[in-house]
Automatic annotation (TrEMBL):
Main location: nucleus
Organism, as annotated: Saprolegnia diclina (strain VS20)
PROSITE patterns: RRM (PS50102)
Keyword field contains Repeat: yes
Coiled coil: none
SMART domains: RRM
Protein name in the entry: RRM domain-containing protein
Pfam family, one: RRM_1
Family per record: Belongs to the RRM U1 A/B'' family.
Amino acid sequence: MAEARPNEAALPNETLYVRNLDDKIKEPRMKESLYGLFSAHGKVLQVLLMKAHRLRGQAWVTFEDVNAASLALRALDGTMHFGKAMNVQFAREKNDLIAQREPNAKPREKRKREEKKEKKEKPAQTHKAPKAGGGSSNSGPVLPHKILFLQDVPEACNDEALAMLFKQYHGFKEVRMVPGKKGLAFVEYTDDAQAAIALQGLNGFKLTPNERLKVSFAKK
């Protein structure tokens, strides 16, 4: 399946990544149902669903502690929910609610300011959109890069939805939509290796039965 993630398993943590949900169920009902289902195994802090219409069918459930999340995973992975078998795994990225409890955690706004400052200090070419055609060039294959170039992004899919998708891979930093160009975006990771893992896992991600996301390395 195009939605499958790399073979390496995410480390146990407080947040579970839930897939194969019935996308025909209205968000409020699905959220309430998941909350009730997962709360049977521990205190649930948050249930987050994808807002973009074409990326429904996924959710993130955050517990108070890792033990509760582990119990829920073992109990609910593969169980039927609205007629579909749920796929439950540990999420690859910590929920902000949990991250903020760590000793060296920074407030979200401070992190945003620091990321914004770092973004401004980067060379201008980092923010330029590649030429039409994506990651290829006449000079040869594009080398691995910590920035990924996305094509065929549906109009209904915003930067928040893309962030929820790509932050499942370690090292995620930010999503940047390309102004004035439909269907194009950049996703940045902390290094080339982490970007490569995300590319392997999400290139060809099935957005609809007939649409797949194109992911390649951005030109340096």
